[in-house]
Every structure is written in C-alpha cells, then in structure tokens.
Amino acid sequence: MTQSIHHRATLHNGVTMPWLGLGVFKVEEGQELVHAIHSAVRHGYRSIDTAAIYGNEASVGQGIREALTENDLSREQLFITSKVWTADMGYEETLAAYEASLAKLGLDYLDLYLIHWPVAGKINDTWRAMEKLYRDERVKAIGVSNFQVHHLEALMANADIKPVVNQVEFHPLLTQAELRAFAKSHGIQIEAWSPLMQGMLLDHPVLRDIADMHGKSVAQIILRWDMQHGVVTIPKSTKADRIADNAAVFDFELSVEAMRRIDALNENRRVGPDPDHFNF
User: Fold this and answer.
1) Catalytic residue among 54, 98, 113, 134, which?
2) Is 54 a catalytic residue?
3) Does 3.20.20.100 match the CATH number of domain 8-201+229-239?
4) What are the residue boundaries of the structural domains of the chain, listed by start?
5) Among residues 147, 117, 1, 128, which one has the least CA distance to residue 52?
6) Binding of substrate: at which residues (predicted)?
7) pTM given for the model
C-alpha cells in the first residue's frame, strides 16, 4: 500500500518516480502557474509534468526554482517531466527540442522525457534521439505517451532501450486493462493523464457512494484507485485547496469490492484524442 506522498515507483532502469505529481496541461504562463507549483511542493509533491506544446515551460521553471529555495530542497529531490511535440519529432529535431525545453525550464536535465504522441513514420528516428539523450546522461529516463499496445510493440522491435513509462488517458471510464497488462509484462510503468476525466466524474453516483463511505472526495477515491492499480498519476489543478485535497490519498485503502465497482464503470470512453486517429 502506498502510504505517503514521498513513496516512489521504481522504473525498470532503477530511477524512482513519485506516485503522485502535478499536471499543468492548459495552464498558461504566469503567476497562477508559479503559485500552483509553490503550493504543490509545499504540500509534498515532488513531481511536475509539463510538455513543450503546453507553452508554459518558462513559468514551470520559475515555479520550480522558487519552490526549491522556499522549501530548502535540491534539484535532485524533484522529478520533472516534459515531452517532445509531434512537429518536433525526428532525430535532429528531437535533440533540438530537448535543448529548447531545458532552456525554457532553466534546468540542466530532465528526469523523464516522453514522445507525446505516436506519429506514424517518425517514432523510430525520434526514439533514437531519445536513446542518445539517455546514453549521454542528458536525461534520467525516457518513455512515451499515448502509445497503444501495437505502438509499443513496433517501437520495441527497433529499440535498444525500452520505454520506462507510457503516459496515457486513464480513468474509471477508460480503464485500459489490455494496455496495462501488456505494460506490466514488459516492466513499463503506466502513468495516468486526465485521471479525473477533466472533472466529468466528480458527480458520478457510484463514485460518490464510495466516497461517502470513506469520508473522502470523489477525486481522492479516483486517485487512490489509480495507485492501487499501480498507476502513477498527475492530476491538474492550480487551486491550493484542490492541490492539498488531491494529496490526501495516503491515509485510507479501497477494498477489493470497491476496486471492482470502479473497474466495472469502464466504457472505453475517451475525453482526449484517440491515439489511432489524431491529426496533429
């Protein structure tokens, strides 16, 4: 049982990653984002997830630097993720995109760098660049995002290094059972984006019932369900009370029956794009 916000998952290359992190999708550059990172680190978060396409790496970097000073932490105590965007995929392009992200963030390295989406025809060259970054010790770990089983199979058929993480849409209406089983069999850590389905699940009657039984919020129930499935999760919020609420998931455990009830909600329903049908 994951009992503390400081507990970490061990990735297959030996790097450790916090089970709970802060996502910053659709949060614009500016003080709101900087303050959200301050609040998250103050409440024990040690993982921040951004991406080049979010257009907010500069504010993320500012927030990180200020939070490190404010909390007397070293850079090594945080786990920072960014992602290469579809337009920047390719060998030389990915190497340049990585340096651009570091420059915007004001960091010397990332803990995790991901291919954001599986663009046909560009995956292998992009992954070769990621492997170079890893071998050159420019990044601690490399992985992918939004990859289905067949994308992972194709990548691994040509790769020297296996992805350590696959960050995908995962929530009670999209439980990704086949993908999770495949990832587990290959030692790839699943990480959830949009774990709360962009807020669409917060009034779900089954989740509300389970939440009431535990004296917890629906968001806390969903995040606990993630962790008990061995899924790293990065809920997004800029509000200090929500950030604190999302972190209060380590003092209870869902029963086998509650886990089954939530699993049974699956509808294979996405709130984001389908990795097999996207046009960006």
Assistant:
1) 54
2) yes
3) yes
4) 8-201+229-239
5) 117
6) 116
7) 0.97
Q: How far is CA 198 from CA 7, 135, 173, 202, 276, in A?
A: 25, 36, 12, 9, 21
43 touches 243 (CB < 8 A): yes
Residues annotated within a binding site for substrate: 116
Quote the tokens at residue 115: 């291919």
| Residue appearing with tokens 């029963």 | 255
Residue whose entry in the numeric block shows the structure tokens 């601690």: 140
The CA–CA distances, whole Å, from 47 to 60, 105, 216 equal 12, 14, 23
Which of 157-160's residues contact partners 24+ apart within 8 Å by CB, and which partners? Answer: 158/124, 158/127, 159/127, 159/131, 160/131
How far, in Å, CA of 187 to CA of 169, rounded? Answer: 19
Dihedral of CA atoms 236, 140, 152, 53 in degrees, nearest 10, equals 40
